[in-house]
Amino acid sequence: MKPAVILFCLALALAEISAAQNVITPANRIELFNGTNFDGLTFCMRNDADPMKTWSVTNRLIHCNGAAIGYLRTLQSYSNYVVTVEWRFLYVTPKKNNTGVLVHMQLPDNVWPPCIQNQGKSGRQGDLFVMSGVECKEHQGMNANTPIPLRGEANEKAVGEWNTNATACAGNDVKAVINGKLLNEITECTVSSGFVGIQSEGADFEIRKMFLEQLNQPNEFFKVITDAQSGRYAVVNSDKTVVILKDKNGNIIWSTNVTSWQTEPTDGAKQIYSMKLFSNQLMVQVGRGSVAIDIQTGKVKDFRVY
Q1: What is the pTM of this model?
Q2: Rounded Cα gap, residues 229 and 65, in angstroms
């Protein structure tokens, strides 16, 4: 190997070590994909496969054809953030249906590195894997490659439609939110910072957005954007009893507490399990009941028991 090449490789390795040590906690939104190229990202592919034969950027979309096993990841290391990936499968066939969002990735690069995976496999988005020696409280006593399964039913859209996979990393806790629904949570993880990546594991898929956001309050369990132009959004508090509408600066517009609602019994404690937006109403699942909340006023409009 030529001296110049050796020096370049050494400089790159030192830069990555520095990035891993210089962990950033986002204060504002950070775009991980600029819509044009792979600036700020790097690759690790099994058997040193050429990443450009698997990954490409066309029409402001990242395309992964799944030809080789591996991943792309950030050059920067992060902690305490929410990473959101908007992606879709182009088609799904057996053994060509798998990917994942990797967080808290550790050096050295290897397939697979120590990290936590928010599963992206078709039908299983929201399973959480602790990988290559990483552990968490919920995984103790389980086999190494066994995921922490979904809490409830999957919340994916049909193949070809865009899904929003959000992974909230707050200290040593990680939550999986799929299309606005909290599906999983692990605690006391043995890693709390690292790189962020996307798996290539056979699936043919596209990514249109990949970004980090500030973890303003770890008790905001899931969020639904109610007005993209004004930036208003609804969140749920840590004990899953309060729906809060906020403006783009985080100021509270209104809030409503499910424990005060005059409704029929919900087959157990009144706790919020999911939120979805329909027109000007937030549909909130509480126990076995579904409540419609007027976005403008925060008032309960309708309640139904399943």
Answers
A1: 0.69
A2: 34
- Which part of the chain is CATH 2.60.120.560? 19-214
Residue 261 has a pLDDT of 66
Distance (Å, rounded) from C-alpha 194 to C-alpha 102? Answer: 10
> What pLDDT, in 10s, does the model give residues 10-60?
444 444 454 445 999 988 889 999 999 999 999 999 999 999 999 999 999
| Contact between 83 and 24 (Cβ < 8 Å) | no
Residues of the chain within CATH 2.40.10.480 domain(s) are 223-305
Residues 6+ apart with CB under 8 A from 179: 155, 156, 157, 163, 164
Q: What angle do CA 98, 196, 95 make, to 5 degrees?
A: 10
Helix (H) / strand (E) element for 38: namely none
Fold of 19-214: Jelly Rolls (2.60.120)
Under CATH, to which class is 223-305 assigned?
Answer: mainly beta
> Which residues are CB-contacts of 251 (< 8 A; sequence separation ≥ 6)?
none
Q: Which ranges of the chain have pLDDT less than 50? A: 1-16, 18-20, 218, 265-268
Task: Tally Cβ neighbours within 10 Å of residue 300.
Answer: 18
